[in-house]
Amino acid sequence: MKTHWFVILIVGLLVGPNFSLASTDFYFTNLRVMANSRSATIIWSVNQPATGVVSFGLTNSYGNWIQDTRFENYHETLLVGLKPNSVYHFSIQSRSSQGAAVVSDDYQFTTKNGNDGVPPEISKVRVSFITANSITVTWETDEESNSTVYFDTQDGNLRSSRSDGRQLTKHDITVNGLKTATRYFFQVGSKDASGIERRSGSYIATTAFGNDQFATDLQIVSIEPFNRQLSTDPHGVIFSINTNRPVSGRVRYGEKTKNYNAAQDLLLPRTTATRIELTNLKSDTVYYYYLDFTDVLGKHLVSPEYTFRTPPVNILRSPGTEVKAAETSPAEVAVYAYDQPRLALAEEQRQATSLRQALVKYFGTRRVNRISKVNWQTLVKAYVYGDYPVVAIRQAIKWGGFTVHPAIPWSIWQTTTTYNNYINR
């Protein structure tokens, strides 16, 4: 998930400052906790780009976790829905792009009293979207609180407002019914559970020309689904969905067509570039899904049914992992794949042999023989049916599989961020 910055009170850790290390070459640094009554931000760094999982709860059994799938050195993880004036335990697990793993000790922090008499701190106020008759404003607070935008055409006399009574730390309000091509002054305000409100300073936004009554329909501009091996869930699926206006809504999905038994809601703030992560999926399984979105103008869209396939277990092992020498007969590994009809056996053998020769020339026979049978099958299918070039196969072996997708052909996978992050390393 995305992480967030809040300028709030730093709470001292209740245990020692050192982490337990899985490797002297990969370790945590600079741990801090910033907590308030109902949320906390865990700030932590690692010496290599890595993903992470923060497990937390009222005991050292935790019971809750939040995943950060970005390969970065610096991480901030927001925990919400906490109880005021309570001691929480947490631990961090991190995995580098090289496959190294490290787990921290158990740490604790204490949330603040819910009636502390301190109003929420407001940050990151921005106008996220403007139309002819509406302005959408987003901001963040350091504790759960409601949302109000005060506005008018004259500064100092903001007579109108729009509110959302939900207690949130990410706030997103659309003010509609505005005059076209008109300058508006506005402030944002948030009131916490104790009834104390904080207001921002004044901001200015000008509506566009035109009329929202004639706005185009809500459109999905592009969908980029891709599977990625995550630190604790190798079968998670991440969607990047681009729309012509910011949207709220959900993804509904399931293992059978027209039978969707699970759903994932979009997170605030609304955006035109939505990122959705689905976890706890079955490996090597086709899922059916559709999108149900509503934009800032109230226009609604239900997409057609789409599909994605999760990767099989252990697409490729991390570099250096010892595995039993594999049988590499192409006759055993050539199968139907990438929606392509199966070739004649002789042609499969010829192409698989060509791939093996190219890999042996680069890595040597010993390294190629260490590829497991399942992984060799994946590589051959990608090369023969998915049109993956030798360089993509080679980089997949070096970097844990990121440049080869078991279901998406190279013509599509080569355009993804994941592929381009690893192909030239």
In terms of topology, how is this protein built?
Layout: E1 10-11, E2 28-35, E3 39-57, E4 64-80, E5 87-96, E6 101-103, E7 107-110, E8 122-130, E9 134-152, E10 160-176, E11 183-191, E12 197-199, E13 203-206, E14 220-227, E15 237-254, E16 262-265, E17 271-278, E18 286-295, E19 300-302, E20 306-309, H1 330-333, H2 345-363, H3 365-369, H4 373-384, H5 390-399, H6 410-413, H7 417-422
Antiparallel strand pairs: 1-2, 2-3, 3-4, 3-5, 5-6, 5-7, 8-9, 9-10, 9-11, 11-12, 11-13, 14-15, 15-16, 15-17, 15-18, 18-19, 18-20
Average pLDDT, to the nearest integer?
80
**Shape call:** globular
Number of DSSP strand runs: 20
Q: What is the name of the CATH class of the largest domain?
A: Mainly Beta
What share of the residues does DSSP label as strand, in percent?
A: 35-45%
What CATH architecture label of the largest domain applies? Sandwich
Query: What string, H for helix and E for strand, traces the elements in order?
Result: EEEEEEEEEEEEEEEEEEEEHHHHHHH
Helix content: 10-25%
How many independent structural domains?
4
**How would you characterize the largest beta sheet?**
7 strands, antiparallel
Task: Catalogue the unreliable spans.
Answer: 1-23, 227-232, 315-335
CATH level 3 topology of the largest domain: Immunoglobulin-like
Counting helices, strands and paired strands, the structural category is: mainly beta
